[in-house]
Amino acid sequence: MTATLFDLPASAPTDRVLPPAPLNPGRRSYDDVDRVTYLGTHQPSWLARPEFAEDCVPLCVANHRLSGRKTLPRAVTPWMLDSGGFTELSKHGRWTVSPYAYAADARRYYDEVGLMDVCAIQDWMCEDEILTNTGLTVADHQLKTVASYLNLMTLDADLPWMPVVQGFTLDEYLRCVDLYERAGVDLTLEPVVGIGSVCRRQGTKEAVRIIETLWSMGIRLHGFGFKVTGLRNGASHLLYSSDSMAWSVNATHHEPMTGCTHQHCGNCPQYALAWRNRMLNSLPDYRQLLTLTA
Questions:
Q1: Residues with Cβ < 8 Å from 28, sequence gap 6 or more?
Q2: Could you tell me the residue ranges of all domains in the chain?
Q3: How much is the pTM?
Q4: Number of C-beta neighbours around residue 153 at 10 A
């Protein structure tokens, strides 16, 4: 049987290269669903590539990929700014980018790149490994996450900041929602709210229960780093939007696609679009429709 984009197991051996993944001949878009399924990329130049504008494929780019550049691409498709929090806290155990610098960067991207949908705040994840790095508690991280939203709104309230709810158990997420409310922020009135610290357990019943509960409260959720398995296992119809870089990791374990001359397709727009098309086509139709009305 020929391997496909979805045949790669979570712990695929690095010494075995799979056959090239085939292009997807099916539909390339699901109307508004495409607008909220952000394709993660390492390459800021993709923001200006015409193939992403053709079907209005939204992209997700991390701040550290854009910060410090003398010239910026002019976007031809909508995109979201990821703050790069997991990288920051994993490497340094703290934020090395000040709120002032981050707000200034986001303002520059909004003005010079254009078409920015949302920019994520400088949130604090609550996975055990991150807590170990910071030496703080879940409660500390939640307070710092809420404070980040308030600080960034104070610095530049006209930017489309996306608040994020953090925690690990359902009660902790509800406590984070309460912290926002006590600070005068009604998350049900926000265009979209990120849900952190669930991407590594997105296919579990606990993660789905957390997402279901927040969704039932009227909060429009964005799922960071949601892969195919997470979307298939009950999350796709509950998330207003999601992003993923899974295609790039997947590509490094396949031979290049037919016609490609690079060693692997880990930074190949053709492969990225094929992966995304297959992902969208793999979701049950009823979930696609529910996503449109979420």
A1: 55, 273, 277
A2: 32-293
A3: 0.84
A4: 16
